[in-house]
């Protein structure tokens, strides 16, 4: 992981209510989410980006403050794949509100993920 994605999408707790940063380092197969204060952002980024955690899934809840939406970004072991689940004020299609506006999220994420080495992507949504 490199800085571009963190420059565009700010770290934040799931409810974006000032509770801090939510993250996971899955080094025990339990996917225990942890939270810490926002003043610990540098330490969290160092932890999830550590070479020692390259073989583990790591993730953070991210938030686009201008668009007021975000979700859970999970980088899979080896960092060649990642997943994003829009869980914070999900943007829906205006003509089909049960479905996610995938184009908006792809436009917001893909350029930054290319800098991380993204070679392809797959998008999928299920109606609420």
Compressed to H and E, one letter per element, the order equals HEEEHEEEEEH
Global outline: globular
- Beta content: 25-35%
- Helical content stands at 10-25%
Radius of gyration: 14 Å
State mean pLDDT (0 to 100 scale).
82
How many strands in all?
Answer: 8
Low-confidence stretches: none
Q: Please outline the major beta sheet.
A: 6 strands, antiparallel
How many separate helices? 3
Amino- and carboxy-terminal Cα gap: 32 Å
Estimated structural class: alpha+beta
Can you describe what's shown?
The chain has helices spanning 3-8, 41-48, 102-115, and strands at residues 10-11, 21-26, 34-36, 57-64, 69-75, 82-88, 92-93, 96-100. Strand 7 (92-93) and strand 8 (96-100) form a beta hairpin. It is globular. It contains 3 helices and 8 strands, in the order αβββαβββββα. By secondary structure, the protein is of the alpha+beta class. The strands form 2 sheets. Strands 1, 2, 3, 4, 5 and 6 form a 6-stranded antiparallel β-sheet that branches. A two-stranded antiparallel sheet has the order 7-8.
């Amino acid at each position: 992981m490199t800085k571009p994605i963190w420059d565009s999408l700010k770290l934040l707790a799931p409810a974006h209510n000032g509770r801090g940063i939510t993250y996971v380092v899955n080094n025990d197969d339990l996917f225990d989410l942890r939270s810490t204060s926002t003043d610990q952002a540098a330490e969290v980024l160092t932890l999830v980006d550590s070479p020692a955690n390259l073989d583990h899934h790591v993730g953070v809840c991210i938030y686009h403050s201008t668009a007021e939406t975000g979700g859970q970004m999970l980088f899979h072991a080896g960092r060649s794949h990642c997943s994003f689940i829009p869980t914070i004020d999900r943007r829906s299609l205006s003509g089909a509100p049960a479905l996610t506006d995938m184009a908006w999220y792809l436009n917001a994420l893909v350029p930054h993920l290319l800098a991380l080495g993204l070679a392809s992507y797959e998008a999928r949504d299920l109606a609420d």
